[in-house]
Amino acid sequence: MKIYTKAIFFLGITICCTHQINAQKQLYNYVDPMIGSEGVGRVFIGPSCPYGMVKPSPDCTSSPNSGWLPMPKEVTGFSQVHVSGTGGGPKYGNIQIMPFSGALDKMDQTSFRAEENVKLGYYETVFKENNIKTEITTGEKVSFYRFTYPKNTSKELKIDPGFFLGEEKIPDAREAQQFVGSQIEIVSDTEVRGYSRIRGGWNNGRAYTVYFWAVFDQPIAKYVTFKDGKFYNNQKAQFDSGKKTAALLSFGNTGKEELNVKIGISFLSELKAKNNIEIEIPHWDFNTVLSTLENKWENLLSRIKVSEDTSEDYKKMFYTGLYHTMIMPVDRTGENPLWTNDEPYYDDFYTIWDTFRTSSPLITLIDSKRKVDIINAMLNIYKREGYLPEGRSGNDNGRTQGGSNAEVVLADAFVKNLKGIDYELALQAMLKDATVPPGGNEEKEGRGGLMDYLKLGYVPYGTDRAGNRTIDYAYNDYNIAIVAKGLGKMDLYNQYIKQADNWQNLWRSDYENNGAKGFIMPKDKDGNWLDDVVFGESKIQKPTFKYTPVIIESPWYVCHWCVFFYEGNSWEYSLSIPHDVPELIRKSGGEKAFEDRLNTFFNSDLYNVANEPSFLTPCLYHWIGKPYLSSDRIRTIIKNNFNTSREGLPGNDDSGAMSSWLAFHMMGLYPNAGQPYYLINTPLIKETIMQLENGKKFKISAKKMSDKNKYIKAAFLNGKAYNKAWILHDDINNGGELVLEMDSKPSAWGTTIFPPKK
Amino acid sequence: MKIYTKAIFFLGITICCTHQINAQKQLYNYVDPMIGSEGVGRVFIGPSCPYGMVKPSPDCTSSPNSGWLPMPKEVTGFSQVHVSGTGGGPKYGNIQIMPFSGALDKMDQTSFRAEENVKLGYYETVFKENNIKTEITTGEKVSFYRFTYPKNTSKELKIDPGFFLGEEKIPDAREAQQFVGSQIEIVSDTEVRGYSRIRGGWNNGRAYTVYFWAVFDQPIAKYVTFKDGKFYNNQKAQFDSGKKTAALLSFGNTGKEELNVKIGISFLSELKAKNNIEIEIPHWDFNTVLSTLENKWENLLSRIKVSEDTSEDYKKMFYTGLYHTMIMPVDRTGENPLWTNDEPYYDDFYTIWDTFRTSSPLITLIDSKRKVDIINAMLNIYKREGYLPEGRSGNDNGRTQGGSNAEVVLADAFVKNLKGIDYELALQAMLKDATVPPGGNEEKEGRGGLMDYLKLGYVPYGTDRAGNRTIDYAYNDYNIAIVAKGLGKMDLYNQYIKQADNWQNLWRSDYENNGAKGFIMPKDKDGNWLDDVVFGESKIQKPTFKYTPVIIESPWYVCHWCVFFYEGNSWEYSLSIPHDVPELIRKSGGEKAFEDRLNTFFNSDLYNVANEPSFLTPCLYHWIGKPYLSSDRIRTIIKNNFNTSREGLPGNDDSGAMSSWLAFHMMGLYPNAGQPYYLINTPLIKETIMQLENGKKFKISAKKMSDKNKYIKAAFLNGKAYNKAWILHDDINNGGELVLEMDSKPSAWGTTIFPPKK
């Protein structure tokens, strides 16, 4: 596959329109970066290489997370670093540029868009005010801009390293990015260098620095530099004195209307950014940059091929799903300013709480060598900084939301036999999370509330997010147990497999709600169940709040990350025990009661499609021998919530979490991350062929599938009858074919052999 | 005083030899930077402004802490950043330069010294091999070098941003500085820019970057650049790819023999380093730089004047003591790469465990406005990073050795009424230390072992440094109590004044050793005293070690920072209860037993003059009404251990800790840091006049003092009989005179009113 890619790449240089000739055949054409861009999806819409370090995109006013907002919002400029699908305070938005026409006398060059076109690797807009066209494509570490100015108008460009997303009036407000410093130098009549240094943002991270080197294919005719509100003529440089700096450049109104700009970025230095340009894009051919990017994506996307008869919409939803999954975390190998950098280095784990369930397993399936690099980067972060990342951005760990979910990622790699990982080191890193409290900042890394968890077997009410922390820690302990067992450390296994039951310590078995009995509920340090919970810290007032399993909101004066369950309620979390569904069923009153409970959950709008805690829940019918009900739920959820529109994702995409949930289900597979199998559901795509990195192929075919024939009647793995509604990763990895025979009625298939138990 | 300084400064420009004309009268001439440079003192010997950011000095082979080692050790070059008096793994040693003559074909230009001369602000050496003379002086952020090459030889210079101190074969060995990256660019024929990025060192800190801008007063005739073992002709820049870079420059063999070089440094950027040169040293006059530095020191040193009849040796010891006290921490205001930098910012608290006892109080006395800035910088570190510094270097907190001694510094400022500090914030910062365990890295900041300390009232054996941590935490709790009381928070006062007794929980009252009874001894979690303590973690072997109060060493396999008492034994630490000497005396069996104990301590070599834990102990006779015995001990200790030689300090100077202990005792005062008084002892200087920053003066005169008349017979404060052997800070700060009448015999003076109690 790689050889093929290279061939295309070189063809791309000699025949510049290769990508257009092959357009209809190539899979990247099915990627629509606008899916999930509006509403709650918040996906990054600009061009990006797979796991690409540079992510150029327009920044619209009012600080959106991905930079972009739909028209008619104004565009303040185009910055080079963004994230995809995140919530909370924005991060990045560094090194902003903006074309304009006119005097070099004001920093604000905000414009409205007259049009906008986006496809994979390509962004285009024309500004209303001045008719300037902006086109963007990108390399791994270098953005490429083509500006076309109207005939006979003057060509100006702002370069603003003082800009960043998420600026707030209170500079050190929680989650606000905060300005630390910036610098700019006009190096020659075709080069500008500088940097932006910012701290904070959603992960409350330490200062990070984005260095840049910009080159132009036309000489600068005139310029002013800017610092702290003032413009300076004939001053080539504005040094960093903790103030915002920028430059306004004029390329005159003669010569060609097209101005090409390359912006190399680096986290090490401006010269490294320059070198990144020289290595990656030594030429001025926009189309070559674009076709190189397209080929990189084609190489990855073509690892899963779908049958020709798949609808255009499904192809778009599926390949866009794969695409969204592989734009983060970000490959910063060779760009690590914190330690020697000849090892893989990844940043923007944003966050593993979101991605461990589906994004991470999907990368394992499509791009397992990359996954090994990502995990080795995580282990290096542990070695050098003391803890695995849970969230990480701007070269700093933070924040945790629930568990220390790197454990799931490591266990998932272990049970799926990924090679090239030091699992002894991995276990040591996991044990650090499980035994050493993170201390002063209990939401940066590790496990907040750990001492209580170890002492009491649960996190007591009073510690932020006590409920979901308890549940996640129990699962993370299970992950540790599995790896320990695999490494022959039975003492550790015995200890952690026991701790994996800790979720039961918050199970209030007599508590009833909406016809269901037994819920994860708040308990205090002394072991008392709490019906009313105290909020606030006033010594005089003791405001309380009735806590029930359907409550998700909290009083206005309580921060949303301080509640018992983070971004969810007890109904959701009381169904989120991925390692011990059989015990959960037993505790819920047996199979019948559990089925009723699931039905109530989905039928009474207690299920929240917009967030990750309930990702696995539609599949729980598998454990009561009714996989067809799982498939029914999944089909309905997808039909009602996912589509090819700009609002086609029902929640924050969170680095591809939503998108990969969809992509898995479209294939008819769903991973239980950290465990070696996938659940089998009715796919949306009739035929899927995975080209595995080991050279083997695995095909999933749903015979006679239609809107009506939506139930699996029988299955055959490599020609042999297969009665399990789940399949081991090894069975896929060994290559072969899974044939599903479809029917219009539920059958007995998959009803007797339940998924592997704890 | 400031106006006077400025006048001198401008005179310095017009009459370049001002500093020589006034030489005999000015106090800076009594500073000998070589005192304490050999043996264990490890003081920085190069030129430095007070609290100066740049500290240029030779680096000798084998990684010394201050860079310098005595002849005949080879010099590898001169780097721009150093620390003074430290132990453990070296820090800094960045941006090394080295003059040489010959081909541009090798990085190693190491030379032997033929001569070397050092005075305040000035370093000079001539190399044996090539007769090149190097002279160095410095500004706050800019080093100034004057190289004189022999006639008709070619003038070459190495600039090596890849160099750093403390490199080890195992790159991430504990306490080793580790290379992260470097970069160099020949900007023009008179300018070079670049940086050095290093992590680790004694405080195991995150990566820091020292940027530089070098300018020459002669044009570069020829150069090669260097990267990762190879030389490059005609390549002006070597970008950062995680490899060592450097440049060899030739200034030819024509023109003047003198090459002047200015090296600006910055922690923000190269352009900021350039700006630092432009602002601070816009000219090429070596002598002006030197006289400016001398005047800065003169301004500070002249705040304490000693009588004319003081011996030359005593003047040298005293003023060098003041000098050593004020070269660290380092003023990096405007150079903070971590957050907006318009507030005071200091780095290189190295460490407060060393400096809280005497350095910090001496700065309060001489330079209280500076002290307020330093404390505000500490509070900013708390605000932005979550914890006050205990140690801090390279923009990162770390390490702790005993307590969270920032508490002592804050309490000291509070009881001495320093204005301009938000003491509510200070209390909040102190309470963070006292209540929130630092977590994952228990030696970076805060209080390691805190949970046990809070639960048990002591740190149990098994936690590193359990003994001295318990003692220090108890004192730090006392500091909190005092500030809380002063702010009217009696609940907090009551809680912490109780915790201040926690040292008693490790007091093993029936334990006898060398005739003394009662010692701080190791106790396990269950409350059992341990006679034999386990070392090592083997499951098969259970090696034990008999623990006694005289033991300081540990078995070879135990790290020296993991023992029960850090850098001391129980004899020392069992006398280190600075907030409750009366109770210590009671527990030791009363006044007689305590006097015997002290005598045994000093007469049997149990006292360790080389380290800080016993700094206060010679004064403890005050609390049994025998201050003359304190004075006797102090005089003997000074006579036997301190002098004007290069080995004139008996231990690591630790940012001036040893030096300030000496300076206080020479004046006849000794602070009990964190408490509002100074103990009065027989001074070594007959008359001391302090010029306080509030405009007032305070004079201490010892009338008729001689080698024989070494006992205080009577004292008079502002003419009134004064019978206390201690004096309040306020009494000094209000101005006035303390007259001590001396006699040849101990008297009843100071024997009845003991120092203030807890």
What does this structure look like?
2 copies of one chain form a homodimer. Chain A is of the alpha+beta class and 758 residues long. The first copy, chain A, folds into 2 domains: 2-300, Distorted Sandwich (Beta-galactosidase, Chain A, domain 5); 304-680, alpha-1,2-mannosidases domains (Glycosyl hydrolase family fold). In chain A, 27% of the residues lie in helices and 23% in strands. Chain A has a 9-stranded antiparallel beta sheet. A 6-stranded mixed beta sheet of chain A has the order 17-28-29-33-30-31. In chain A, strands 3-8-15-12-13 form a 5-stranded antiparallel beta sheet, with no helix packed on it. In chain A, helix 5 (312-325) packs across helix 18, helix 9 packs antiparallel against helix 10 and helix 12 (466-486) runs antiparallel to helix 13. Chain A is globular. Chain A starts with a helix and ends in a 15-residue tail after the last strand. Mean pLDDT of chain A is 94; it is low at 1-23. At the A-B interface, strand 9, strand 10, strand 11 and helix 3 of A face strand 9, strand 10, strand 11 and helix 3 of B.
Total domain count of chain A: 2
Biggest chain-to-chain interface with counts? A-B, 47 and 47 residues
Q: What top-tier CATH class of the largest domain in chain A fits best?
A: Mainly Alpha
Give the oligomeric state of the chains in this entry, treating copies of one chain as homo and distinct chains as hetero. Answer: homodimer
Strand content of chain A: 15-25%
**Termini gap of chain A:** 38 Å
Biggest sheet overview of chain A:
9 strands, antiparallel
Put simply, the count of helices of chain A is 19
Name of the CATH homologous superfamily of the largest domain in chain A:
alpha-1,2-mannosidases domains
If you average the pLDDT of chain A, what whole number results? 94
Rg over C-alpha atoms of chain A, rounded to the nearest angstrom: 26 Å
Query: Which sequence of strands runs across the widest sheet of chain A?
Result: 4-5-6-7-16-11-10-9-14
CATH fold name of the largest domain in chain A, please?
Glycosyl hydrolase family fold
Q: How helical, in percent, are the residues of chain A?
A: 25-40%
Q: Which structural class matches the secondary elements of chain A?
A: alpha+beta
